[in-house]
Predict the 3D structure of the following.
Amino acid sequence: MTMTEDVKVKFKLNGRRVEASVKPNRLLVDMIREDFGLTGTKIGCGMGECGACTVLLDGKPAASCLILAVQANGKTIETIEGASPNGRMNSLQEAMVKEGAVQCGFCTPGIIMSATALLRENPHPTEEEIRTAISGNLCRCTGYQKIVKAIKKASKKSE
Amino acid sequence: MPELHIAGKPLPRPDAPGKTMGYTQYLDDWNLPGMLHARIYYSPKPHALIRRIDLRKALSHPGIHSILTARDIPGKNFIPMMKDDWTFLAEKKAIYPGEPVALIIGNNRESVCRARALIQVEYEDLKPVFDPEESLQTGAPQVNPLGNLIAYHKIRKGNIEKGVSEADVVIEGIYETPYQEHAYLETLGYIAVFHDKEIMRVYGTMQCPFYVQNAVASILGMPQNSIQVIQTPTGGAFGGKEDMPSLFGGLAALAAYKTGKPVKLVLDRRDDILLSSKRHPSRSYYRIGAKKNGALTFCEVKVYLDAGAYATLTPAVLWRCAVHGCGCYRIPHVKVDAYAGATNKIPCGAFRGFGSPQVVFAMERQMDKLAQALGIDPLHLREINCLRKGDETVTGQKLPFSVGLSETISKARSMSKWSKKWRQYPLIKGEKRRGLGCATFLYGVGLGAAGKKLDHAEAHIRIKSDGSVVFSVGTTDMGQGMETVLTQIAAEGLGGIPMEKIRMLPVDTFSVEDSGPTVASRATYTSGTAILSSCEKIITTMKKTASKLLSCKPEEILLEKGCFFRIKSPKAKQIGKNADNKKNAPFLTFEEMASECFSRHIPLSEYGYFDSPPTSWEPETGQGKAYVTYSFATQIAELELDMETGEIELQDIWAVHDIGKAINPQNTEGQIEGGVVQGIGYALMEFISFNEKGMIQNPSFSTYIIPTSKDVPRIHTAIVEVEYPEGPYGAKGFGETPLMGVAGCIANAVVNASGIDISRIPILPEYILQESRKL
């Protein structure tokens, strides 16, 4: 196999079985954004340092700019578009809006993905656990306080 | 002030749902058919003549469409900013590492990226200079084509010798502050389309669409009526998208013009940090004096800003630096000299605070040193000297209204339990120390006397026939929440209709006239005032029409919660299907009125203007009404300091801000919290390192460190509202202020904890350890 030959990948994307033909060096984030048109996943640095491209890979938060598209084969990928499939905000998203946790919004999808993974694993996290869970997601606008509050609020709702 | 129903309420942002669901399309989230991609080739040299540019290899790379250099520019190779020195593409000389020389255009990002490495340029090295004070000395290499002194501003008030002779205590200090990178999450990005070879349309992330319009006009030699600049949802800016979009938006337009195809120019993070402007580093020399009772007698400041290679916005930044250099105090004798020197490094531009955080840090350290020398509670020293209503600023400006500084001090004092703690903490000895520090400061709202020419704004509101509303303004939302605040102002101004009925249109240079830049914390009070003016015109027309329909006089119509009531003679004929629900008074709903006006051919489409109240400036003395008004703040930091490791753990920050009126208190809190955290980065961790050739060494988020969710303390905010009578519902601008005092109050808290004399930022552990050895 040469680097120019396309490879077939089959995976679950936001609950649906999908497949794509990709170059072996294609990044997961580019496949998601360009081949599937899911542009809610952002590119903030391209080097796994800012968290804007966070998706869930088999339920775990992952920087999609550091993962090859072929690595998605046989896996489950969730993006921000999967968080509100019917166009209605889920309780975490509602809390983000209500608490004023969104400013420029560029980090928001990544933060929601990180927080989603946290709340699934740990429905009642402490503030410290929330801060740790989103510590890989840089936000330059909000100072994080309202984001932490929103995640806490969403976790209380799930009680 | 009438009772407000929408303005002043913490209502949710209309743009937030789309952002949380990932629908909002930022510039890089869409493409056009046949679109090409562009990338910048930049000079790696600090100072060099460009001898030869060889593009042959790069051009033969697969996927490359063309490569443009300065020679391909049909218009002027000048970016219109404050001086005619800044070029789009370097032609004969390159004067900083990162200066664009060529624009590579190709079918995809990978090709243009690879072709960049194949461009060969022959340079002839010239001697560089990297320090602004050195660059201003005779014999220094000439960096900037117009001379190395980019700007100089001075203030002279009273008689400095007299001030010195009246002082019982004199405090001197030298302070240094670093570069700061904006680190907005969305990098710079533009798409240009030459529509029908008639209209050049530029989309992108930006603060100032009219700057970009002027830049495109310059590079292409086209009239403004052929250039349409449309702002796309903008992922943070902080000043970093004031000057730079002119350069990169202009280059995208050049590419579209030359190729005839849509062109996308998006910078990756590395290029964004390497090629975009930063906060000016500073070195300042201070001398202040006071009487035994604490009253300041004089303040003498000499400050140098490192402008980098081109002027961009430096003259304005330096002016604000000079005006803010003596803080927020009553001082009879003042002498300020502010210089900006050109160096062979990245040009510095706008960054939240715009030349003031540098001197606020220095002045607030001075005040604490003075308090210590006098044996006065440092917060009380500020109470003694702080500007109050009726006082005069250091530029001789009388403050007739909206001076809530002393309120912010007393509120911050009680919230932080200052009085108990600040005396106790220095008594704690050993490895783990604790400290409390304060800073008080002012911020001149808007462009001020230096930016007079640009200080106007336009708004356009249209009521659709179904009663829904659209409005256009020329200022932008970059994440700070302007759309929300202006929508609230419009909803209130139109008689209390729900915010959901109102939509702000994308900012577009074809829809309203040049409203100046979205900077200087000016959007709320400029565009807000313009909106209220158009609302008034529309309401007058609607009331007049309503009075005809309800058979009464216009002054007998009461507009409340979006309904036009006839307040006199309740027995008159009722119109409107909802009329039965109300007690007697006949009325028409907003929707009914919109529909009636439409069918009667009564236009409900009005422009409103904001024209800045007068400002003045006498350059020889630095006296005048520098700004229309000021916002004020007190910030207090509490921290733990490990003397063994030099590590600081912030515990709490209290931030109390007088902003006139909070149109959306939740947004206001968000601005305070975000600004404070950016200030924490400035105080404790952010710096740019350069190699010996002036090239930035840390262009990534793993080497340029900004605060994460784990680095921030509890932030306690409070809003003081001392109404600004010329602002919409009493509001004055404030978005920049939350950053400004943080470095000062943290530094003062470190001193309180350890006795170490902090004179520069960032306060890294190694700095603490190095200084603690001197104790």
